[in-house]
Amino acid sequence: MAAEQSVGFEPADRLAEDRESVRRRFWRKLKRGATRLPFAEDLLAAYYCAFDKATPRHVQASLLGALAYFILPFDFIPDMMPVLGFTDDAAVLATAIRLVAGHITTEHREAARAVLKRGVEEG
User: Phi and psi at residue 99, in whole multiples of 5°?
Assistant: First the structure.
């Protein structure tokens, strides 16, 4: 069932099944400067929603797939490329968020804003 809700990219699908690995690697990548991305707030809100125990499993699976794609060291457009590097990550995340938008709460968004305001300390 989780594979039906994920991003459809096999390495991301496999990684999404390991929640703790996603958690660790997400914060590591975020600390390396991903907070400057234009979609950083959405990314963090999706993270908080994915790890919220109140979030339905199918929503968690969709968001974990998108987060896994974001943290993979390789993807369709390498993240090191200026300007274009994160466009595929943003597209995958935007698609996942659009599918589950009703589950990303004000609390998830506020937590995301708080992290961006104070700097990345979690993880």
Answer: -70, -30
Closest CA relative to residue 22, chosen from 74, 58, 63: 63
Which pair of tokens denotes residue 91? 């597209």
Report how far apart, in Å, the C-alpha atoms of 121 and of each of 2, 68, 69 are: 30, 20, 22
The answer to whether 63 touches 94, Cβ cutoff 8 Å, is no
Closest CA to 2 of 77, 68, 79, 76: 68
* Tokens, residue 25: 């690697």
Q: What share of the chain is helix, strand, coil (3-state, %, to 5)?
A: 65, 0, 35
Closest CA to 48 of 119, 117, 118, 113: 113
pLDDT, residue 47, reads 96
pTM of the model: 0.77
